[in-house]
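can u pls check wat happens w/ S-adenosylmethionine
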Amino acid sequence: QLSKRLARVGELVPEQSRLADIGSDHAYLPVALVLQNKLDFAVAGEVVSGPFEAAKKQVQKNGLNDQIIVRLADGLDAVEQTDGITAVTICGMGGVLIRDILEAGWNNQRLQGNECLVLQPNIGEKPLRDWLTVHGFTILEEDILEENNKIYEIIVASRLETRVAYSEKERLFGPLLLQKQSTVFRKKWLGELNQRETILAQLAKASGDQTVRIHQIEKEIAEIKEVLS
Ligand code: SAM
């Protein structure tokens, strides 16, 4: 049984993809998708030996050794050209780490640029959307959900023929999440607003010149208020 978060990621993976799940931990996602007959080939990549062994056990236990290859590798180095990967999932990590994994894969051509990316950053969505924008990806789908008092965002992106230039605001809030303005989205940004207001109050009491920092936070507060209004 997948968590609500991973189940939603799984729904967003295109049917019959050849999937690379990077940072797969127990390989729960590829195992579930193959068992659902949504996929029949996946690579589960892990850089740490404990989770790598756990992934191997999970694949073996489910009798999926012919469909899921588990590899001990850093990021997209888990992908071989002959795998013919068409979709990549990178979930449950910070957005900056996901961005760095994509950047390394882009530079060593493990990432071809024609894959569908399904990304689930725990934090740091903005730097991830910055990377996607710079590298010509279009955000095809976004979702935001809450599980165990945590809010998660999911971003689905592919490179299409026409490039979209996302604004700073769209890269911060998510272009599609911004349009949908779901209850969870509003809850997240209300929390972000409160956090910034607390920081602002602390900065007002802090010693030294805080002008630059105060201006930055005030700008962010105004931006969030505008979106929530
Ligand atoms: N993807 C699963 C999920 O969403 O539930 C597991 C998330 S777990 C918090 C993050 C996993 O990513 C860990 O098992 C960690 O070892 C792995 N990881 C971190 N950096 C990695 C990298 N550069 N390459 C491959 N795996 C990595």
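The chain has a mean pLDDT of 97.
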